[in-house]
Amino acid sequence: MSKEEKKAIKEKYQKTEKGMEMLKRLFRLNVAGILLVLYAIYLFFSHFNRLKWSDYVTSIPIALIGIFFLFMSYRLKKKVLNQFAIKNEKKKNK
Fold first, then answer.
1. Domain limits of the chain?
2. Distance CA 30, CA 71 (A)
3. pTM of the complete model
4. Is 16 helix (H, G, I), strand (E, B) or coil?
């Protein structure tokens, strides 16, 4: 698919009720992921001079969870848009 087709499908999906709700949820998931990563960075660098093992135990998993949220949000958006494109293509062909 070309960029124009992808953009058109995304705009069509955003206009549907299900699409608006899904994109709101994905946005919240992105915000949560970014905040978790930023908080983990803050935890790590705020105690940089006196790091203990507990700082590593808390900041590394929090950062990994935040990255996981961001990655899964991207994958879910891609999957949902692909399914929407396939359904629309089937409707066009009928």
1. 20-93
2. 9
3. 0.78
4. coil
